[in-house]
Design a protein that fits this description.
Number of helices: 17
Shape: globular
Radius of gyration: 23 Å
Strand content: 15-25%
Number of strands: 15
Number of domains: 1
């Protein structure tokens, strides 16, 4: 007869096995939030979830909204799984509420992304929404990049596995998990192959639309490349100097965003070679390059995966030279891409697919021309619960997919931490430790 001491380890092993299988099979699909919810008995009555920030103070989106010169422009890049335009709707609603932006454009603008580098490819969709407060003049423009169009065709290779000819042989739960696995699992593999450059080009085109065009000059719809950075007008340059650019990413999107920035850093000094090799007439003028060099660009990485997705990859073109490129007295200061890339890396310790950024990572694994500065945010998205008589469990799937609906994360993105404008919610719920070099 089994005693309680014998039974408890078996129960723990069963539960852990179920959770591990679920998270690795279901990946980032939003519906995975409910897969393990059925086995969770109750949550803690008090919200004692962790929220600790280590690094430099950051201001978030809000301070730039009311400035008289320039606009605030935010680009969001999704992670794995098939996404369709509008995937940010819930997050954008919460962000608008936090920023007190109660008016928005009647309909979003949707651009089918293309580029002369891949003239026959559809690189996805760029959805643009304008939000504002008519009383105080606050305003920002939100850009949502959906790149799933690039990977969708390749993922059809797994269609037979989900078809009626084959799928009926699986148990119901396994069938559901396998469908999500087939949707989310291939994207990192595809990104490592021939689709990596087109996905990075989709990011570059999205960034170009942010830099080049005001709301009124963006087409309502249609297939359009972003061109004209080689002959920017004085008005274009004025806007670039005064506009604020902010990126938000989730999971694989963190790698796409950094790779996209590093690709731009490598292309700008070699424009003539690229034009000759590709036989295309595109480029970026020195005025635009200089405007970028003076920019500080924050990247809010939800479920940051930079350490994991660095495994097995080549190092960037320029590493270990942050001081040389980013300090005014450095010998390569005029070759930097931006004045600072502020990476705010969000990670739930109970998210099995997210990682804090360790000391020394930026010096070794990020292109020095980005002038990176790291702030880690350790935050429990999922609550700790008691289940099956075991205390101290957290749903790892919700820990991975729940970032964009967490009020604390929205408040940190909106108003930052370590500044006078910090949200009262953050002051109450989060600890901040400033680090010095």
């Amino acid at each position: 007869m089994m005693t309680r001491a014998d039974y408890l380890p078996i129960k723990i092993l069963w539960l852990i096995s179920f959770l591990l299988i679920s998270i690795f099979l279901s990946g980032c699909a939003s519906i995975s939030k409910g897969v393990t919810a059925a086995i969770l008995e109750k949550s803690e009555s008090a919200d004692t979830r962790l929220c600790q920030v280590w690094g430099q103070p950051f201001s978030g989106i809000e301070p730039g909204l009311a400035k008289k010169q320039g606009k605030t422009k935010v680009l969001m890049v999704h992670g794995v799984g098939d996404h369709i335009p509008g995937f940010t709707t819930q997050f954008l609603g919460k962000l608008a509420k936090e920023l007190d932006l109660n008016v928005r454009s009647g309909a979003p603008k949707n651009i089918t992304i293309t580029t002369p580098l891949f003239p026959d490819m559809n690189l996805g969709n760029l959805r643009i929404v304008r939000l504002l407060n008519e009383k105080n003049g606050k305003e920002f423009i939100f850009y949502e990049l959906t790149w799933s169009e690039i990977t969708r065709e390749e993922k059809k290779l797994l269609a037979f596995d989900n078809s009626g000819e084959y799928e009926f042989r699986r148990a119901t739960m396994n069938s559901m998990l396998k469908k999500f696995s087939n949707d989310t699992g291939p994207d990192p593999l595809i990104y490592l192959g021939k689709s990596r450059v087109p996905i990075q080009a989709a990011f570059a085109q999205s960034f170009c639309w942010m830099v080049k065009h005001d709301w009124k000059n963006i087409p309502e719809s249609g297939k359009h490349p972003c061109l004209g950075l080689d002959d920017a007008t004085d008005t274009d340059t004025y806007n670039m100097i005064n506009d604020d650019y902010i990126f938000i990413s989730h999971s694989l999107g963190s790698r796409i965003t950094i790779d996209g920035m590093q690709r731009i850093a490598g292309m700008l000094p070699n424009q003539e070679k690229i034009r000759a090799a590709e036989n295309i007439k595109i480029g970026v003028s020195e005025k635009v390059i200089q405007a970028l060099r003076n920019k500080r660009i924050p990247i809010f990485m939800l479920s940051n995966q930079l350490p994991m997705l660095q495994l097995g990859r080549e190092l960037p073109e320029v590493t270990g030279q942050i001081a040389e490129y980013c300090e005014p007295e450095g010998p390569n200061y005029q070759q930097r891409l931006v004045s600072e890339t502020s990476i705010i890396a969000f990670s739930d310790p109970n998210d099995l697919l997210s990682y804090g950024i360790p000391p020394g990572f930026s010096e070794k694994y990020l292109d020095s021309r980005l002038c990176p500065r790291i702030t880690n945010v350790n935050i429990n998205v999922a609550k700790t619960i008691d289940a099956f008589g075991i205390s101290g469990l957290a749903n790892p799937m919700y820990a991975h997919v729940g970032y964009d609906t967490d009020d604390r994360i929205v408040a940190l993105i909106a108003r930052g931490i370590g500044n006078p404008n910090t949200s009262p919610l953050i002051t109450q719920k989060c600890e901040f430790t400033k680090t010095v070099e």
